[in-house]
Design the sequence.
């Protein structure tokens, strides 16, 4: 290895980390802040009513929902994008669409996927080819985990680091949803985020180890609450 290559390695590592942080940021214009993923309905039903119950709810959702479905899709989609395996990408995207348990959840993943594609289009050459890859795949429409995996694949970060970023971005949005809907204070939100951050590595390891036939989207109570939320009288969030 030459001296120049040794000096360039930390720069590549920093660039990859920044890409992961960028995709995990709540400022990413995909609308994640506008969804509670059934949490607002759980508050309305009295199932979530304080910091402890909100933290327990989100921890369960991380392990029983996200890790077994969308996070597992991201784990498979990143290497598929890097290999330009569009057939595999299409299968994963269809799985996400077919396993949304309510109309709200399906509309969420479709809207966020389209928004990420538009974000990549607006970046142009700065998107590292993400826009071109997504358009070439002809996904109708691209779901959020598959689209986000495409953006992550363009970086040089490991699949695991990209998954950690994806999960942390989800956690930040969900904690903010809890703060607004319970409601809770910012300090409570930070404690909840700290608890979720401790759980994310295990959730990522679980998701990364799942084969296709073990991936699942089966959260009956969450589906019932999401269906109720569609006609909830007063609400802050789109789901």
Sequence:
């Amino acid at each position: 290895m030459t001296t120049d290559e040794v000096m360039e390695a930390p720069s590549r590592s920093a660039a990859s980390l920044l890409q992961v942080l960028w995709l995990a940021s709540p400022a990413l214009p995909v609308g994640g802040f506008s969804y509670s993923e059934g949490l607002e309905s759980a508050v309305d039903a009295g199932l979530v009513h304080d910091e402890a119950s909100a933290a327990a709810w989100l921890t369960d959702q991380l392990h029983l929902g996200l890790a077994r479905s969308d996070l597992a899709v991201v784990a498979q989609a990143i290497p598929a994008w890097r290999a330009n395996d569009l057939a595999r990408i299409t299968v994963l995207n269809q799985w996400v669409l077919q396993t949304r348990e309510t109309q709200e959840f399906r509309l969420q993943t479709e809207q966020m996927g389209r928004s990420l594609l538009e974000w990549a289009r607006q970046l142009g050459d700065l998107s590292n080819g993400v826009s071109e890859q997504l358009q070439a795949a002809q996904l109708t429409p691209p779901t959020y985990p598959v689209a986000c995996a495409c953006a992550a694949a363009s970086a040089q970060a490991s699949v695991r680091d990209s998954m950690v970023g994806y999960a942390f971005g989800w956690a930040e949005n969900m904690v903010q949803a809890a703060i607004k809907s319970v409601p809770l204070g910012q300090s409570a939100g930070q404690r909840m985020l700290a608890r979720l951050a401790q759980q994310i590595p295990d959730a990522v390891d679980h998701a990364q180890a799942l084969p296709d036939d073990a991936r699942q989207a089966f959260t009956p109570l969450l589906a019932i609450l999401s269906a109720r939320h569609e006609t909830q009288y007063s609400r802050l969030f789109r789901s």
Summary: Confidence is low (pLDDT under 50) at residues 3-7.
